[in-house]
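Annex B. Sample input.
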Amino acid sequence: MSDSQRLIPWLTLVLLTVVGVAGAAIGIQQAPSNAGLTVAVDNTLKAPNYTSLLQATAPQPQTQLLVWQAPDKLSGYVDTQGKRFYVRVVGSEEYQSSVVATSTGPGNLTFTKGALSQPASAYDPVQGYLPYAKRATHVTQNGDQYSFVITQDGQTAHFVFTVTGQYVSHVQLTAASTRVDLTISDVGTSPSVTLPSKVTTAAPSTSTGGTAG
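Annex B, continued. Sample output.
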C-alpha cells in the first residue's frame, strides 16, 4: 500500500506494541450464558472468519470495516477525511483501489495488485487488540464486561472487553486522547473473501526497475 492510502494499523493509533500473548491467566468466574474472557478471546481468534468495525479518533478520525478469513485473507474498506479506499489481502498479495468518495461501492473499481510487506494478520485489528487480554494481571468484571489497564513503554491504555456468548463482541480502548471502538460480529458466518474482478499490476519501481506484485 502507498504511504498515503495504506491501512493505518491499530499500532499507530494507540502507540503500543504487541509483544505476544504469554502472561498470567485470567481466572474470572464466568456467567452461565457467556464464556469467560480468556476462553472468549481464544474462541474469537480461532474462528474461521469474522467481521470487524473499527472506529478511531486519532491520529485522525478513521473507520475500518473488514472481513477476516483465516488463515490469511482480508477484505473491506477504510474511511478517513471523507474519502474511502477498498482493500483485499490474499496470502502475500494485496489488492487496493484508488481513493474514492465514501458513497462509492467497490463493484466497478479497478484494484492494483502488489506484494505485502508484512503478514495479512498485521492488518486485522482483532488480532492486534485481543491478545492484550492475556497480558492483563488485574481484571475487573461487571456483568459481561471486563476492564483492565496495560502500561507499556510509558503508555497506559484502558481496555473494556465485552463478551457475548462464546466470543468477544466489543473492545473499547482509551489511551491519552485516543479512543478506539472495535465491534466484532458475524463470527463464523462472515462472507468469503474473494479476489476483485478488475485487477491491474503495480507500475515498475523507478528506483529498482522491478515490478511490484
